[in-house]
Protein: YCII-related domain-containing protein
Organism: Actinocrispum wychmicini
Amino acid sequence: MKYMMFVCSDSEPDTDTSPNTDIEVWVTENDTKGRRLDGDALHPTSEATTVRVRHGELLLSDGPFAETKEVIIGYDILECVDLDEAIEVARAHPMARNGRLELRPIGWNG
């Protein structure tokens, strides 16, 4: 099953001072095992454009639409057997301690 993993900042990172996994080690390990299909960092929110259409009118605004301190800063697309495996992959990601990782299955049939 494919999962989109949103990598988000967090205003309350882990205070544990033990060494964190290097992101390049995490990427290489999961690429080699075929669990990470794609991923990258996003440009800062200052370069974002929000697009909406209301009553046929195109509305554009700079930056993210949501008023929040936490923002999506990157993504990874994972291929895992199930949610449990996706959680284990996310758990080892460096941003699990310094941010938040949101997992969502890809492919909605609703």
